[in-house]
Amino acid sequence: TKHFPVRRRVRDLLSRERRVVHAVDDVNLVLRRGRVTALVGESGSGKSTVARLLAQLYRRTSGDIRLHGESTTVRGGRRFRAYARRVQLTFQDPFASLNPVHTVRYHLTRSLRIHGHGGRTAAELERALHDLLGRVSLTPAERYIDKFPHELSGGQRQRVAIARALGADPEVLLADEPVSMLDVSIRLGVLNLLRDLKERLNLAILYITHDIASARYFADDTLVMYAGRMVEGGDSETVTQRPAHPYTRLLIASAPDPDRIQGSPTDAAAATPEDRGGGEPPSLIDPPPGCRFHPRCPNAMPRCLTALPPRLAVQGEPGHWASCWLYDPENTETPGSAAREV
Ligand code: SF4
Ligand code: MG
Fold it and tell me: Boundaries of each ABC transporter domain copy (predicted)?
């Protein structure tokens, strides 16, 4: 769970009243080696916050992160450093995360050295650098190694950012929107590279995206976030073919073209369901009581307005769950009976 303390806007600052953004609540996920887990949601749903929490760039308000069953609650010390090496994060915009005054060689050497994988001799280091570039299919390495970030294409920069993460020899890769800023024509290449790395290096990958169609193509498991909470999860095929949560259904219905792996160049905007008349995600300051989706939900029932739904199993679909009262076997209320007229 992550709550950001914020101050209210100017007039409220005078009263010095402090409020809390419920950035993410009750997030519960397990990443497994050799699997890609997609975390899908609109912008502002909290998905990047989850990645930063897992990378321990943010401190948690509460909760725990375990690696191989061991708590990482204590910051500092050897256990934290081991965690920081094993869990690597890449960002949506690799341009912003690569230092413009340094070459590819500098970035990768630094990563290798920090994590103790640079070898002892200059020749060993050079071999390790070539290996890294080879892993992300930037070959021949000589063509890329002395380039500055601005001399590379967006796709090449993202590959360098991935190579830098691999320099740590991680077990977990947190990829925050790795292709959403890239040209549609090269997205598939980067996703295929990540899938290949998952298999060859037995990585656990968290793939963060607003594009549920790509989750179906690329991820083994899919989790859907809405307003800072996880609302549905299961294997990707099931979640995308038979979505259980009304929000996931809305996401799929408003995706630009479910049969295409990636949307149009404007899919970042098109995939936002508000355009299609679905209302807006709620503020994360004082989120609505009950189910956070109830103001937009066509199936809302009276209980949804006051009671937060727990994770409920979808009958007959092992591993598939939704945080939605529709899946409560004891539910007696009529779906839609509390939905607002639109
Ligand atoms: Fe939420 Fe109720 Fe709609 Fe389910 S039916 S998504 S619990 S408002
Ligand atoms: Mg984000």
Answer: 8-252
Q: How many angstroms separate the alpha carbon of residue 282 from the centre of ligand 1?
A: 14
| Most informative mutation of 230, 232, 250, 293 for ligand 1 (most atoms within 8 A of CB) | 293
Give the domain extent around 173. 2-327
Answer yes or no: is 339 within a domain: no
Interatomic CA distance for residues 5 and 22, integer angstroms? 9
Which residues' Cβ are closer than 6 Å to ligand 1? Answer: 245-246, 291, 293-294, 297, 299-301, 304, 309, 324-326
Query: How many structural domains are present in the chain?
Result: 1
Q: How confident is the model at residue 288 (pLDDT cuts 50, 70, 90)?
A: confident
251 vs 224: CA distance, rounded Å: 10
pLDDT in tens, 182-207: 998 899 999 999 999 999 999 999 99
pTM listed for this prediction: 0.86
Enclosing H/E stretch for 165: helix 154-166
* Residues 304-314: tens digit of each pLDDT: 999 999 999 99
30: in domain? yes
ipTM of the complex: 0.97
The answer to whether position 340 is within a domain reads: no
Distance 177 CA to ligand 2 centre (A): 7
Instruction: Determine the atom of ligand 1 nearest the C-alpha atom of 309.
Output: 7
